Amino acid sequence: MPRAEINIDRVLHALGDPTRRAILDKLSEGPLSVSRLAAPLDITLTAVVQHLQVLEESRLVHTEKVGRVRTCRIETAGFSVLEQWIGDRRSMWERRLDRLGDLLAEADEGE
Amino acid sequence: MPRAEINIDRVLHALGDPTRRAILDKLSEGPLSVSRLAAPLDITLTAVVQHLQVLEESRLVHTEKVGRVRTCRIETAGFSVLEQWIGDRRSMWERRLDRLGDLLAEADEGE
């Protein structure tokens, strides 16, 4: 699993699928084995494993095999990438609004 | 434009496309006309208009036509939906970790 490469493109692609979001919602309640995760989702085990792989590659989920059971849990790294991406944009808009405010204040003083 | 219907599915789909993210990045610097927005993107004006429609439906962008010029600017509502979605999940995980902490503390006291 390439742990270093985690980008916004991959995270947004992973989160764009409703089944993958349902998996994340299930795991938000606590770690689960792959088979217990699959049971209420009404899709094949193979499909669940494929979704898990996408989620793992974007570091939204971490899975670990102990003996014959693979356990899945939420990993926060992928969510942090998304939060960082939104935060960067928010600060850009806020800086822009601040500059606008300064310009308006200057115009006011100049009157 | 249906302003009421704004959901995480739509927002994530809109953000999943790199050209649409490039449009948002351009607009983060300030409002632009559709033609000035299209110029550096190296895609047709029709394609830009289609991307803008998706962004507008997810309330990530607001456009307004004054005379013959349509001006585009960032709208924060779509981003707020995404932040809320992440925030809800984060608080779920934190509550779960708190409960786990309480259980460990109880186990510790019981020793």
Element layout with pairings:
Two copies of one chain form a homodimer.
Chain A: H1 8-15, H2 18-28, E1 32-33, H3 34-38, H4 45-57, E2 61-66, E3 69-74, H5 77-109
Antiparallel strand pairs in A: 1-3, 2-3
Helix pairs in contact in A: 1-4
Oligomer: homodimer
Distance between the termini of chain A: 63 Å
Q: Any idea what the shape of chain A is?
A: rod-shaped
State the strand order across the main sheet of chain A.
Answer: 1-3-2
Strand content of chain A: 5-15%
**Computed Rg of chain A:** 21 Å
Biggest interface, residues from each chain: A-B, 24 and 24 residues
Derived from helix and strand composition plus strand pairing, the structural class of chain A reads alpha+beta
Helix content of chain A: 55-70%
Largest sheet of chain A: 3 strands, antiparallel
- Taking pLDDT < 50 over at least 5 consecutive residues as the criterion, the unreliable ranges of chain A are none
Q: SSE order of chain A in H/E notation?
A: HHEHHEEH
The total of helices of chain A stands at: 5
Question: Can you count the beta strands of chain A?
Answer: 3
Mean pLDDT across the residues of chain A is 89
Can you walk me through this structure?
The structure is a homodimer of 111-residue chains. Chain A has 111 residues and is of the alpha+beta class. The first copy, chain A, contains 5 helices and 3 strands; from the N terminus they run H-H-E-H-H-E-E-H. Chain A has helices at 8-15, 18-28, 34-38, 45-57, 77-109, and strands spanning 32-33, 61-66, 69-74. Chain A has a 3-stranded antiparallel beta sheet with strand order 1-3-2. In chain A, a hairpin with a 2-residue loop joins strand 2 (61-66) and strand 3. At the A-B interface, helix 1, helix 2 and helix 5 of A face helix 1, helix 2 and helix 5 of B.
